[in-house]
Amino acid sequence: MTEQTSSTETPRRIVVAGGGPAAHRFADAMHARGLEGWQVTVLTEEAHLPYDRVALSKALTDSTVDLTLGTTSMWDHESLTLQTGERVVKIDSAGKSVETAAGNTYEYDELVVATGSDAARLPLPGAERVHVYRTLEDVWAINKSITELTEKLGRKVNAVTIGGGLLGLESAAGTEQLGATPVVINGAPWLMNTQLDEGAGQALGRLIEAKGFEVHGGVFPSEILADDDGQVTGVLMADGRTIPADIVIVAIGVKPRDELFRTAEGEEPLFDLGPRGGVVINDYCATQVPGIWAIGEVANFEGMCLGLVAPANTMAEIVADRLHGGEATFPGFDTATKLKLSGVDVASFGDAFARTEHALEIVYADPARGVYQKIVTTDDAKTLLGGIFVGDATPYTSLRPLLGRELPAEPGAYLTAAGGGEAPETELPDDATLCSCNNVTAGTIRDAINGCGACDGNAPVQELGELKGCTRAGTQCGSCVPMLKKLLETELTKSGVEVSKALCEHIELSRQELFDAIRVLELTSFEEIMAKYGTGAGCDICKPTIGNILASQNSAYVLDAGRGTLQDTNDRALANMQKDGTYSVVPRIAGGEITPKKLGVIAAVAEKYNLYTKITGGQRIDMFGARLEELPEIWKELVDAGFESGQAYGKSLRTVKSCVGSTWCRFGVQDSVAMAIQLELRYRGLRSPHKLKMGVSGCARECAEARGKDVGVIATADGWNLYVGGNGGATPAHAQLLAKDLDDETLIKYIDRYFMYYIRTADRLQRTARWQEELDGGIKHVEDVVVRDTLGIAEDLEAAMAKHVDTYKDEWADTLKDPERLRRFRSFVNAPDQKDDSITFVPDERGQMRPATAEEKGKVLIGASIPLRPRDENEV
Hints:
Elements: E1 12-17, H1 21-33, E2 38-44, H2 56-61, E3 80-84, E4 88-92, E5 97-100, E6 105-107, E7 110-113, E8 117-119, E9 131-132, H3 136-153, E10 158-162, H4 166-177, E11 181-186, H5 198-210, E12 214-217, E13 221-226, E14 232-237, E15 242-244, E16 247-250, E17 254-256, E18 279-280, E19 292-294, E20 299-300, H6 309-323, E21 337-338, E22 346-350, E23 360-366, E24 371-377, E25 384-390, H7 396-399, E26 433-435, E27 440-441, H8 442-450, H9 464-471, H10 481-494, H11 511-521, H12 526-533, H13 542-553, H14 569-573, E28 576-577, E29 583-585, H15 596-608, E30 612-615, E31 621-626, H16 631-640, E32 653-658, H17 672-683, E33 692-697, E34 711-716, E35 719-724, E36 736-742, H18 744-761, H19 768-774, H20 778-786, H21 794-807, H22 811-817, H23 819-822, E37 841-843, E38 849-851
Parallel strand pairs: 1-2, 1-7, 2-3, 7-19, 9-16, 10-11, 10-16, 11-12, 18-20, 32-33, 33-34
Antiparallel strand pairs: 4-5, 5-6, 8-17, 13-14, 14-15, 21-22, 22-25, 23-24, 24-25, 26-27, 28-29, 29-31, 30-31, 34-35, 35-36, 37-38
Helix pairs in contact: 1-6, 8-10, 11-13, 16-22, 18-21
């Protein structure tokens, strides 16, 4: 064991060969334990900071996503250096140094090898034309190829993935999201044969094929075919068939990058290598050569090398512990896996194949539904040994931490797909591993929640985000987050902290409960609601929430019947207030389509009232600088010209962004503009827990950025693909596929259901992305409700939306008809014609005006010289 370094000695040099997740975790572990007395140098051949390979599929579909691990500020520590573009090619164990491909030499006192693995390749004719799925460059190249081929060929690309394991299915799913036709070739008789038995593999195959994937199992490829220009045309199979292909991706597994440990022929080997590669390590990750350690996929422990994040993290922590004088040892591999594929629920853990002597298998299978659940126990049916779940993996979260322990209930009780209800409540022992990626036990989680020293300051942790940051649980693959949240709520309840879902101090009901109560009892006023469910006069939380609920359940004028006092400033003014007290005017431009005549109206209005104009990201024109008293005058001109409110001020539908579509674009396969206009006119004025944005793209090139919206629609040759739950903002999220190849009628029906279900069940100010994440079952639950109508409420949701569509009225058109409503738009109640002279403007550098700064307000200003337009004596 290496002795701990004294801070008074010359710093000991640690060189890390490799810059993947294992190397990052080791550097992080050293940083967390203290770098005093150490100098750590990480050498990575890639040009990037260490990134999350678990989430590589995100980069396949979105080349701009940032997968960087941890906080980049860690690398600013003076004792921690990251050298990119440095590939270690040789170890001089006698001289204690390494040499890089660039010819540089780095001396070390301790060497940690974390070179990981390479993508396995097939020795086939034409194999030089395939892509692999391993690095950021690999997935970026796949993304670029599919995009360019789609444009070149003018049709959907046939994307063939060779490999039916975890990586292969993730790769195929990514190509499908890029608009390609996904084809999977799998040499084994069933998918994920390493993790799933035959029954589960067959169930998975049915689910995959139901999503539109083409699967060829039990046969191997023999050649990659191409035309005279080198363009891939197909895959020749061993049975003589040819499978059409425009791009081929090989994702058949990985092989350890152990070349640093191999010696030239005739030389005495210094290191033991496993039969299938990888350097052999002992139970504290040391190799045979003192001072040289190996972690991650390059390390062979008990004859195994695995490409999983959990053992790599554990190895990194062990080496850091040993270098600091600890005695940690490696407990072995956690081989649990969960497929990250939208709409397909798959999980496998422990002794999934029941190889333990006398093991029992308790199985429920429904091939027609693609559901398979299996629990493996000891012969007395008490101790959990493993399990497999396909189609319904809800028991996985609670069972996985109980691996090797006695089950608290009969095994059959966990087969939820058999119709027995939810899995039994599980009280995890303190030493049960809740998060295997980061080896976090339930006890550590409880310590953090109860303030027993798990975090700095010993303060109790009461928020999920804070708990994740404190303990690292749930920060990598995310499969443990539901159990983490459940444990947090349980512990808070035990400690006497009420886990309240109350809307605010005045209303004990949650927003969903309050929404249902108002809907069922048909309450129509704030006073009625507070009398029945509230106390006091209300606050700035419950007032706008109630106003929003009332507006979403009927289309009555939002400010009538006392509802105006419930709204915030923007809703009361039917416009967005700006920093200088003026307002913006945003007329609706459905789908971004506007006639030259209407463009002229906007230009004339902006000129007349000296408004700053800008085209927004939602394909509208925003006019800034309108005074409160000018809003009715401006809107009268706009309404007379056929415009209506764009509701940029409301928690409602904002825009439906569209590309030009098949009408003009040579790549368009559907009329995206017509669909966008239809959707915007259907859902305009729809009040919801948060703002809503939509996008419609006319082909897979995705020019309208539909997957960044709450609801995104992308055209296919066979109809429309529907994506839900996307948003930008501080925590952006990609929308997830809900249904594909829909006709117009079905598309609108599903969107009706989705929006209404969200409006009825989301929390106050909760975006669709966060709402979906927190639903039990996530996107699968949404699919069950919206597509399959498992709750039996589809007809009710559609009727509610139909009522909204039938009763919609433009708020500004209604305002202009009523003199009483117009009284709101006065700067001074007792002097209706007097303007607010504190509002002043100066010319900007680009030929428009902007709000004056405090310093500029003492000078001669444009705004101060603009007189009010003379009013007609009959005008309000």
